[in-house]
From TrEMBL:
Keywords: Cell membrane, Membrane, Transmembrane, Transmembrane helix. Belongs to the polysaccharide synthase family. It is found in: Cell membrane. This is Lipopolysaccharide biosynthesis protein. It is a multi-pass membrane protein. Its main location: membrane. The chain crosses the membrane at residues 12-37, 43-60, 81-104, 116-137, 149-175, 216-239, 295-318, 324-344, 365-396, 416-433, 440-459. It comes from the Bacteria. GO terms for cellular component: plasma membrane.
Length: 481
């Protein structure tokens, strides 16, 4: 059983990693092309409505997907109940957005938002149709199929977006890209999924799943609003071009922090859930996940901060230069995202969605301060405030998770401190090179070469357990190929 679980985890990590890196890589490359063709103002307009779409998607899911993944014995009627709930709620929310779009447009001072919201809002219904097929694949730790679907969706939607931008359609090319990606994704998930709905609905099943999922719903709403509130604040109180700069910085950050977090969440949650009744095994697996994940996170995020300027200038041009400083700040908060996700996964695995909700409320209350400061003092102060709250959030998350599996915060810090110090020192030397008055086309390769050389040399010498674990994982994946 243990070997089987380990094999599933290795395959899951491998395919989930390929899924996120490949699909996000394609989306990122498409974004680079679009950034050359479009203006910061057009990106800013799209960012303004992100919070409305994100919040609506959280309501549609309502924590049911996590409840289904966690449930040990699943029945067909459970899937059918959630499926029809998702559809009904998505239609209701789309109609609400359609009606509210004029008021939102007035608030954000962008008349074009009316038509954009009414078109992009269709994503809510399309996404609702994909929730159960995706949950079935995640529950079975089948990320190979999801990888294929993501690649098809990313390539197809990229072609749509670039074609529309070249045709001079401006911000509508971003609408076309997002809409087509979700449509392709949902269509192919249904094509490959063996599950199909029946006309049945169970109040008993609904109440059971919602009892767990409702707290995750509230937690998810709070977190989603917080993650996207910057778009609203910047869009409302600053120029749309400045919001566009922040959006591009966030998208560079997403390549590493968000994708790594997604991989960890998608794989660790079903795997840890399957051993939730074995305390020793659960704690050891949890510890390994933290150590190996944070080795990657620290190296990627601190390295990204070090090379931010030459990277942005080379890839999208000088018109996006203000995004450099935004990205460097965001990286310090983003490096902890996977750690937040892992600690919060334990609360879900242990069925403590009540603690999950309590934590989200406390953390977001603390986060209000930096947002208010940002309104009056500037975006930079708001972003540095988010770094501060990210560290506070870690101590809160780890405190509660530690009580459930006997893995104290101090033990966690001892486990990840060597990788943090190593990555910080290496990133510092990489950043020093960027101070040289050389061509960015020479600086970036030199920074990357030095960073890879230094970090590989240090880890080969000290032989950290997490480094060895990653090498073994890489070898296992290569052997499978």
């Amino acid at each position: 059983m243990q070997d089987s679980l380990k094999d599933k985890a290795v395959r899951g990590v491998g395919w989930s990693f390929i899924d996120n890196i490949a699909s996000s890589g394609i989306t990122f490359l498409v974004g680079l092309i679009l950034a050359r063709l479009l203006t910061p103002e057009e990106y800013g307009v799209m960012a303004m409505i992100a919070v409305f779409i994100a919040v609506s998607n959280s309501i549609i899911d309502s924590g049911f997907s996590n409840a289904l993944i966690r449930k040990v014995h699943i029945k067909r009627i459970d899937y059918n109940t959630v499926f029809y709930f998702n559809i009904v709620v998505s239609v209701f929310l789309y109609i609400s957005l359609f009606v509210a779009s004029p008021a939102i447009s007035i608030f954000l001072k962008e008349p074009i938002l009316i038509n954009i919201m009414r078109i992009i809002g269709l994503i809510l219904i399309i996404n609702a149709l994909s929730i159960i097929p995706r949950t079935v694949f995640v529950r079975n730790i089948n990320f190979k199929t999801q990888t294929k679907v993501s690649l098809i969706s990313s390539i197809g939607s990229g072609f749509v977006g670039i074609s529309m931008a070249l045709a001079g359609m401006g911000v509508w090319s971003l609408v076309g890209q997002q809409l087509s990606r979700q449509l392709l994704n949902t269509s192919f998930l249904w094509m490959f999924c063996k599950w199909h709905p029946n006309l049945e609905f169970s109040l008993k099943s609904f109440n059971e799943l919602f009892g767990f999922g409702s707290k995750l719903l509230l937690s998810g709403l709070i977190n989603t609003i917080y993650q996207n509130i910057y778009y609203i604040i910047i869009g409302r109180f600053y120029a749309s071009s400045l919001l566009g700069q922040y959006t591009r910085a966030e998208q560079f950050n997403t390549i590493f922090s968000t994708n790594l977090t997604t991989v960890v969440q998608r794989v660790s949650y079903p795997v840890l859930s399957s051993i939730q009744e074995e305390p020793e095994r659960l704690r050891e697996a949890y510890r390994k996940v933290i150590r190996t994940t944070m080795l990657i996170s620290f190296a990627c995020m601190l390295g990204l901060a070090a090379v931010a300027k030459p990277l942005i200038l080379i890839l999208i041009g000088v018109k996006w230069l203000p995004a450099v400083y935004f990205l460097q700040i965001i990286c310090f908060a983003g490096m902890l995202y996977p750690l937040h996700a892992i600690n919060l996964n334990i609360l879900q695995v242990k069925g403590r969605s009540d603690l999950f909700l309590k934590l989200e409320m406390i953390k977001k209350f603390i986060a209000v301060g930096p947002i208010v400061v940002g309104i009056y003092c500037g975006i930079e102060y708001m972003l540095w405030g988010s770094v501060f709250t990210s560290f506070i959030a870690y101590f809160l998350n780890s405190y509660y998770s530690a009580r459930l599996i006997d893995y104290p915060t101090m033990d966690q810090l001892k486990d990840i401190l060597p990788t943090f110090l190593t990555s910080f020192i290496v990133a510092f030397f990489m950043w020093c090179i960027s101070l040289l008055d050389w061509s960015v086309y020479l600086l970036l390769p030199l920074q990357l070469f030095l960073g890879i050389l230094l970090i590989a040399f240090i880890y080969e010498k000290v032989k950290l357990p997490e480094y060895i674990e990653l090498k073994q994982l890489a070898v296992s994946l290569l052997k499978q190929k």
